[in-house]
Every structure is written in structure tokens, then in C-alpha cells.
Amino acid sequence: MTSCERARGPGLAGDGTGDDDRLADWRAREARLHLVLPYCGLLVGSLLATFAPAPGGLPLAPTLVVAGAAAAWIAWFHTLHPQWRERRRLMAGYYVGLLAFAAVLVCASPWYGFFAWIGFLHAFALLSGGWRFVGMGCTAVLVATAQGGGLPRSWSHFTLWLVLVLFNLVVAGAVSWLSYVGEREEAKRKRLVAELAAANQQLAETVRENEGLHAQLITQAREAGVLDERQRMAQEIHDTLAQGLTGIITQLEAAEQTRDRSADWRRHVDNALALARESLTEARRSVRALRPEPLETARLPDALSELGERWSALHGVTANVNTTGTPRPLHPEIEVTLLRAAQEALSNVARHAAASRVGLTLSYMSDIVTLDVRDDGSGFDVTDRSATPDQDGSYGLTAMRQRVTRVGGQLAVESEPGAGTAVSASVPALPGATA
Q: Are 411 and 404 in contact, with CB atoms under 8 Å apart?
């Protein structure tokens, strides 16, 4: 079943159409029956007036002429021109003529009461508003006159005639009212069906639009995922390969300058080899989107302490790592962000600051965790973009800021020429899984 078929619902997809067809067929047969009933009434009245004439009636020949004229009147205004039925004033004139013919025929012969009651049907079908009840009242008088054998000739006959009028009014009014209520309910049902069909159509269009939007969102999500993965890989490459290669080059340059001192030369070469192995390991872990190895085996404060010790050993600069507050497990992405920020900050100190001392402070607070990295190096003018540490085109502070912002944190950099640099990363203290 398609989405549009589901939107249409069982009410319209099932037997509803068949019921409407049967109802329309019944209405068509009823309309055809109403067309022939006036002629049947005239025919029955004429036959009875011919073969069983009532006493005191008019001669047969004029009566049949009037009956023929009544048939022609009905045929011209009602049968042959059905489109005229919507013209209320014309139909009111037609109905007055119909009552006149019925009155003459009932006076000529009571048997034409079979024709006079057609006034009930035409009053309800062709007249509107209160004129319907006026027409039914006049028709009730004519039918009661026919049923009583003519106009009343005494008080007792008048009483009987009045009872017949009231009886015909009550019966005709009840039938007409029920028919009117039925028509209103039918119109209401048709309106509801039309509204439901329109709502289903709108729902089907909405479903189609949602399918298009869903496909568009999937495409956008796929493109966003590809872009995010590219950014992640670029940052990971910078944090692993680029920083590692920078350290290797630094150590090899130092080894080149200590060729005549074998011990120092060997130390720098060993440091370069260790950096190469560590960078290769971190690059493989980054490709597989795994956490950095220090965080796999230690908590964040311990990983930062180990990072500071390794960095001090490589660059010969004292790096003090302190932790304030109560350490607790954080979300893996938070811990990776802080570790990478520390790595980048120390890398910038080694490349640009010419510092003699570096301090790292990890602070655990109720809702945030901050990492502060301060050095006593040369510093720079933070308002001068050409003086920033990553002016050579590397990611540097840009990568650090992107990482911190991606987890909902903020990065602040304070520095002045000759007064050192302070980098502060504040991130949400999102809890992680406890062991």
C-alpha cells in the first residue's frame, strides 16, 4: 500500500464509493417516478370520472379538456424544461397554475383527488421557505375536499371536511419534515465527504512533500557528515602527523647542530624516532576514530601530566601540570578536546614562544571544566592577525577553537608582546561512563 493510499483511509478506499453509487441510482429512479406520478394521477382520475362519475360533477368533456390542459401545463413547465426548476419565481407561477387546475378538476370530480395530492410533492421540491407550507396547506384543502366528496354543504359536513384538512396537513407536514431532515443530513454528509476528500488530498500532497523533504534532509545529512568527517580528519592529521613531524624536524635540526657531541646527537635522534613511532600510532588511531592512546590507559589529569613530562623532556622547558577541583570521568569527546587543546598549546609554545616555563591547570567545576595553558615567552599582539602563531597556514589556534566550539565550549587567548601567552579552554562538564 502506498503512502497516498494510506492517507485516503479505509472510509473512502472501501465501500463508500459503492454506497454513493447506489444512493445516486436510487435518487435517479425516484426522480423518474416523480416525473410520471402527475400523469398517473390525471389518468386514474379521468378513468374513474369516465366510468364511475360522481353525482353533481361537471360534464365529462370539459373535465377531460381541463385534465389535458393540466397535463400540458405540467409537461411544459416541469417535464420538458427541467432546468427551469432552479428559477424560483417561475416555479411559483407554475405551482399556482397547478393548484388552479387541481381545484377545477376536484370541483368537476372528486376522483381527481388522486391528482391533487401531487401538490405536496411539488410544493416541497419547487418552492422555498415558508411558501412550501402555504402550498401544502392549499393542497391539503383540495385533497380534503376530494376525500369528502366535494365542498361542505352543512355544518356536520364542514366538521368532517375540517378534520380531513387537518389530517392531511399533519400527515403531509410530517412526511415533508422527515424528507427535509433527510435532505439536510444528505447535504451535510456530502459536504463532510467532500471536506474529507479535500483533507485526504491535502494529506497526500503533504506526504509527498514530506517524502521530498525527507530525501533532501538525508542528502544534506550525508553531505554534512562527509564535511564533518573531512574536518575531523584534517584536525586529527594536524594534531598527530603535523605536530609529530614538527617535533621530528626540531629534533633532527638539533641533532644536526650536535654532530660533534655523540651523546646529545644520539638523544635527539632517539627523540625523533620516538616521535615518529608515536605519531604513526596516533595517526592510525585517528583514522579509526579512536580515542588518543593516553586517554585509553589513564584519566585526563594523568594524561596531561604525562604529556607535560614528555614535552619537557623533548624541549628542555619546564612544564608544570596542576589539577584543581575533584576529577571525575567526562564524556570522551570532552576529554579528547581538552587533550588536543593542550597538545596544540604546547606545540605553539615550542615553535613560537621561546619560553622558559609553562604551566597547565585543569580545573573541575560544577558545570564546566577549564584548561589554562600559560607561558612566559615572547607573546604576541592578539589584535594583529599577522602576528598569531598560526600565520604560517597551519591550523594552530583555529583548529583548537573549532574543536572547543564543536563541543559547546569557548576558547580565550590573552597575550602581549614580551609578556607571555595564556590560552583558556572552557567546556561543559558532561559526565562520562564510570568504570
A: yes
State the cell numbers at 270. 632517539
Is the pLDDT reported for residue 158 higher than 70? yes
Q: What is the value of pTM for the model shown? A: 0.42
**Does residue 343 surpass a pLDDT of 60?**
yes
Tell me how many degrees the CA angle 236-241-243 measures, rounded to the nearest 5.
95
Q: What is the mean pLDDT of residues 322-339?
A: 90
The helix/strand/coil state of 412 is strand
Report the alpha-carbon distance of residue 182 to residue 185 in Å, rounded.
Answer: 5
What is the distance between the terminal CA atoms of the chain, rounded to a whole angstrom? 49
**Cβ(360)–Cβ(371) below 8 Å:** yes
Buried b / exposed e along 264-289 (16+ C-beta atoms within 10 A): ebebbeebbebbeeebeebbebbeee
Length of the chain in terms of residues written: 435
Q: What angle do CA 414, 419, 423 make, to 5 degrees?
A: 30
Residue with cell 579509526: 288
Contact 45, 117 (CB under 8 A): no
Report pLDDT for 283: 67
Confidence tier at 20 by pLDDT (50, 70, 90): low
What are 357's strand-pairing partners?
Answer: 318
8 Å CB contact between 134 and 124: no
397, 413 in Cβ contact below 8 A?
yes
